[in-house]
Amino acid sequence: MAVAVILAGGRSSRSGTLHKSCRKVPGDLRSWIDRQVDRLRYAGFAPVIVVTGLRPQRVHRCLHRRVSFRHHFKAVQGPFSTLQRAVKNIRNPLLIVQTDTVLPSVSDLQCLRRTMQNQTIAAASMVNDCGSGGHPLMLSGFMARNLQALLWENPDARLDKQLSYLPPEQYKRLNRKMDHSFPRLNTQREWCSSRIRARRLP
The domain 3-199 is classified under which CATH number: 3.90.105.10, 3.50.50.60, 1.10.10.10, 3.90.550.10? Predict the structure, then answer.
């Protein structure tokens, strides 16, 4: 079974008193993070783990689904250390999701999960027609253990760098027709500007 990990360890200070995970798509009573958990479960990921760090109480208040929690007490060390906390002791393939990423369709997520059945693949991600994106990201258990072994203060302790070191045959990029990524959901204005696109999402 593949695990899904939602990274919610940032401070999200620019989003104001309401964490970006708590915002809602118009016409949907669910919080953003509830939508993510539902989609991941429909796609067959279990368990779903939410990793908190700075200001975790804001995430807890808007999450109404039964999930596993991991808290990173040293989140000030940076996002890579939070990622290491997320992948610790996980042996199965896992999906890494950021809180400001709109997940693709259930069928796309299932395709991503099936890709990891190939034992030679270390990582797989969704990219748009232009080849950009990279989220969500699927990692093999072996790749997760390699990330865990790095020292967080190492200059190479960055996920993008570690992915760039993989040979092409070990990093699979799956094309999709539309870009589901919302890279900036920090301020109220940025969120409102994304709502038109978000309304079209299932």
Answer: 3.90.550.10
